[in-house]
Design goal:
Structural class: alpha+beta
Number of strands: 26
Shape: elongated
Number of helices: 19
Strand content: 25-35%
CATH architecture of the largest domain: Distorted Sandwich
Helix content: 25-40%
CATH topology of the largest domain: Beta-galactosidase, Chain A, domain 5
Length: 733
């Protein structure tokens, strides 16, 4: 009997000696300590953290009773504290300096007193109120970081101190998540990822199997929810995160940091190999959804200034380097991040940079398409790219599912980036994160009322109503369907159809990114709308730049501006100018940076044109003053043919301008029926024909038809044919 007890004690002691395990092991920490002085980037990262933490050594650090919204004093204090505890725990293991463990102990004992007494946060709103913070999501952040801090320093605490901390600081939070907020904890959403990671980290740090199992498999432990289900259901097979790149960035931290802990604590899960290395795909897909400056493309809710130097991507890249191996593309990003984690991956990246390993100036962007949905059958999103380095052009075409609660009503939306600048824009989200004066740092009312509405995007709006009448659950049940695509050469194209956004209306959009001779780039946008009933169709182009010229006369509202409408986002648009046009090729040129851009639109019967700007009905000045150009057509079936021409150059230093007028002379629709759409465009010294099938879009289907003396024959869903204008003129003579 005594022998059995002795063996059990040995097993328990051996298990306890595994700590730390959440962030790194003691052996890894020793290797980091020996590497710090050898690699400058590792030394720099170490010095920065040490300087921040050392400033608090020996001081009484406040742990205030929560009362403020996001951005307020108490919110900022608790956020600062969990980062401070984590960094101090890392330094304790690298330096073996007991003062760092003492700092963590001081704070954890204070939280043990505070957390056991906390009610719902006084400024909490919504169905998932926090206790330390206004929303439970922030409490989950606290759990993730603080659990790692405890794991990193628990060896320095007495058994009594560990019990006090585990019972007082952690247990109340875990029970609150898994009991009071059970539906929220089990929700498939980025909040759920953080919640599972927080509870799971506490479980690993405190040797609590119950917590780990709930984190992995949900509160019922049946696998329908929990961290593993979050890995299965939030990413498509390609690694696309359904809420968009901004939230892919936010969610990737708990995915990677908890997987990092599980990699050590439960190696049998083979967490980084699950679902065909879905976490590796997720990281690479997230990076592909950034601009040349590293900013995440503003798909769905997004703060447009967030880029890949954020802590979440530093963490994911450094862990990925460790578990998936070296990657020159990641090294290009790590160089721009200019800091690394004090872990194995961070040390290896610092070593690679110090050794002069070659890597590209920019992340190796490519034309990519990502399917949406857990099975990859819920539409998707395409990123068409042309050019290299600073001359990169990116056309984004979104035909995905809604994107959960952070989605927008923007099926068949497009955006364009060129030379690192946003040209055809997306508002992103209406929010000032952690700015207390702006609605407590939360999403502003204008986020739902304007930013997520269809008119705030670059897709057709029917009868001044948003897609699915602005109903998230209804939109969430539908997605657009890709018809065909080709993304491999100088002519790239994607076509998709949307049948459910508006009752009785079919919308089909085909976008081309084409490189003509002499490197000239154009975007061709063919958008057909069909209905048995009369409708008003608005196609907005949200743009960034200064108006230079138009081919049409407009009436500017210089004395009395009025809103464009009364609801569905129209109430926030000032009507700055309007025009009417008949049977013409409309031209609108604007300047962005050093480049001119002209939108050319075919009007075969009549259309109204509007220049608008956000800001109407906005007395609190919550919205940016962004411009847009809206083309309005009325009828049953309507075709919008638009070409965006990238041309010319402007040098404000030398005060020189060249190519400020588009070379495109004519655009004509030669055929538009159930079978084919054919467009002819005269640009520069060539004639460009665009032919696409409207019925059979199979890759191997052969098509042929005659247009006057010309016979068009091709295989597949589309054809781009160019001819020199000199040949045409000679034939005419």
């Amino acid at each position: 009997m005594l022998l059995s007890i002795w063996l059990l004690l040995l097993v328990a002691r051996a298990h306890a000696q595994q700590h730390p395990v959440t962030f790194f092991t003691k052996a890894e920490a020793a290797r980091i300590a020996s590497a710090v002085q050898r690699y400058p980037l590792l030394q720099q990262s170490y010095d920065q953290i040490k300087k921040e933490v050392d400033g608090w050594i020996g001081k009484d650090i406040p742990v205030p009773v929560p009362k403020d919204e996001a951005g307020g004093y108490t919110h900022t204090a608790h956020r600062f504290n969990y980062n401070l505890m984590f960094n101090s725990g890392v330094l304790y293991n690298i330096t073996n300096d007991a003062r760092y463990a003492a700092l963590v102990k001081q704070l954890l004992l204070k939280y043990a007193k505070l957390n056991s007494t906390l009610p719902k946060h006084p400024k909490a709103t919504g169905s998932s109120p926090g206790r330390l913070f206004w929303q439970a999501l922030n409490d989950a952040n606290w759990l993730v970081y603080t659990a790692m801090a405890y794991d990193l320093t628990r060896s320095a605490f007495t058994a009594a101190e560990r019990k006090t901390i585990e019972d007082g600081a952690f247990r109340p939070q875990v029970e609150y998540f898994t009991r009071d907020l059970q539906k929220w904890f089990d929700k498939i959403h980025n909040h759920g990822v953080w919640a599972c990671a927080g509870v799971g980290m506490v479980g690993i740090a405190t040797d609590n199997k119950e917590y780990v199992d709930m984190a992995l498999y949900g509160t019922a432990k049946d696998g329908k929810y929990g961290f593993l289900a979050q890995m299965e259901k939030l990413y498509s097979p390609d690694g696309y995160y359904t809420e968009g790149p901004y939230y892919a960035r936010y969610a990737i931290y708990p995915y990677y940091i908890f997987a990092n802990a599980l990699h050590r604590a439960k190696p049998e899960l083979k967490i980084f190999e699950r679902r065909n290395r879905i976490l590796q795909k997720a990281l690479l897909a997230t990076l592909q959804q950034t601009n040349l400056d590293g900013k995440f493309f503003p798909v769905n809710d997004a703060i447009k200034d967030k880029d890949f130097t954020t802590n979440e991507l530093v963490t994911a890249i450094d862990i990925a380097w460790d578990v998936y191996g070296a990657d020159a593309g990641l090294l290009a990003v790590a160089k721009k991040q200019n800091r690394v984690l004090l872990n194995s991956g961070g040390a290896m990246i610092a070593k690679a940079i110090a050794s002069g390993q070659k890597f590209p100036d920019h992340y190796p962007y490519a034309s990519v398409e990502y399917r949406d949905g857990v099975n990859g059958d819920e539409g998707g999103i395409s990123f068409l790219r042309n050019g290299k380095g600073k001359d990169l052009t990116t056309l984004i075409f979104k035909y995905s599912s809604h994107g959960l609660s952070h989605g927008h009503f923007d099926k068949l939306n497009i955006n364009l980036f060129d030379k690192g600048r946003e040209i055809l824009t997306d508002y992103g989200s209406a929010r000032f994160v952690n700015v207390e004066q702006k609605y407590g740092g939360r999403y502003l009312p204008e986020n739902d009322a304007y930013a997520s509405q269809t008119i705030a995007h670059n897709t057709v709006v029917v009868d001044e109503t948003s897609q699915f009448n602005g109903h998230e659950k209804l939109s969430g049940r539908h997605h657009s369907e890709k018809l065909f695509s080709s993304i491999s050469d100088s002519v790239q194209v994607v076509s998709a159809v949307e049948n459910n956004a508006y009752k009785g209306v079919q919308m089909k959009r085909t976008v081309y990114l084409v490189q003509l001779n002499r490197g000239k780039k154009i975007m061709v946008d063919v958008f057909s709308v069909r209905s048995a009933d009369e409708h008003q169709y608005d196609l907005p182009f949200q743009y960034s730049g200064q108006l230079i010229a138009t081919s049409f006369k407009y009436e500017a509202a210089t004395a009395n501006m009025r809103p464009m409408g009364t609801k569905n986002g129209y109430q926030y648009l000032w009507k700055e100018a309007e025009a009417r046009t008949l049977d013409s090729l409309v031209r609108f040129t604007f300047l962005n940076g050093n480049t001119y851009y002209t939108i050319l639109s075919v009007v075969e019967d009549s259309a109204q044109l509007f220049f608008t700007r956000t800001g109407a009905n906005d007395p609190n000045f919550n919205l940016r003053r962004d411009p847009s150009f809206i083309i309005r057509k009325k009828g049953k079936d309507r075709l919008f043919v638009n070409v965006l021409d990238i041309h010319g150059a402007y040098d404000p230093v030398s005060e020189s301008s060249s190519g400020s007028a588009s070379e495109i002379k004519t655009i004509k629709t030669l055929r538009q029926d159930d079978r084919y759409t054919v467009i002819a465009m005269e640009t520069g010294d060539q004639l460009v024909y665009i032919c696409q099938s409207n019925q059979d879009t199979g890759k191997h289907t052969q098509h042929s038809f005659r247009q006057g003396s010309d016979v068009f024959t091709w295989t597949g869903p589309f054809l781009i044919r160019t001819r020199p204008l000199t040949t045409i003129n000679q034939q005419t003579k």
